[in-house]
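ok here's Ferritin-like domain-containing protein, seq below lol
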Amino acid sequence: MSLYPQLEAALLCRDIERKMELAVDALQGWRGGALTRADAPPPYALPEAGRPPRPELVHPAKVPKRSLSTRQGHAALIHAIAHIEFNAVNLALDAAWRFREMPDAFVSDWLQVAAEEARHFAMLRRRLRALDCDYGDFPAHNGLWAMSCKTDYDPLARMALVPRVLEARGLDVTPGIQRRLAGIGDHDTVAVLDIILREEVGHVRIGNAWFARLCRQRGLEPETCFQELLRRHDVQLYRGAYNLAARERAGFSTQELEILRALSEDDTAAAG
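and the structure came out like this:
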């Protein structure tokens, strides 16, 4: 069977549990040789991936901020992370489905990421249900998928701006979230985030490796190329604390780590 109709079905699926099953099935079918890249029609613009009617999507600035001192605030924080993981499933599926000029190893990498993101989502959904909530109960924003649409023209742009910017930010903020959750006694979610953080390092490392490989193939200097893509898409690097140890494991270069360290120090100085 052709891989691409299977990936398209997973991408467009609106049923939460079925989408996660299809993501795992795609990886297993690919690894087992049941799915091939033969007879692949060209991809097309996909303004919206399949998602359930809820959560309501709002502008990032309009996502309500809730205190962790309340049960609703506690659940809302976990919901926000689950929403990121749900979008990450679609992003990984889209990378494997869209960029058909890339080699088989690229497909293998992103199908693995999709299956792992599906598992992350399932773990977080169980934690939500333990708080008598579910995915869709809180509003969310669509920033991750919006960047997918902006970078659907080139795998280099996608690798630069999704894994290396948006997903890498998760490496930075997760330890702080874990401390906050530990402070209210939610050690079960802290343990889930330990697993997610470890595997997200691997996902960002995959993005870094393909970005570097594409730069080499095109004769581009990686840092110059990255800065140009940031300018072209009006993306600003965050100011604030960076998890430099995790980013080093994820394959960021010494030069990049120094830039991020300087951003952290500038922010600390401004706050002081």
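fwiw Residues 268-272 have pLDDT under 50 and may be disordered. kinda neat tbh
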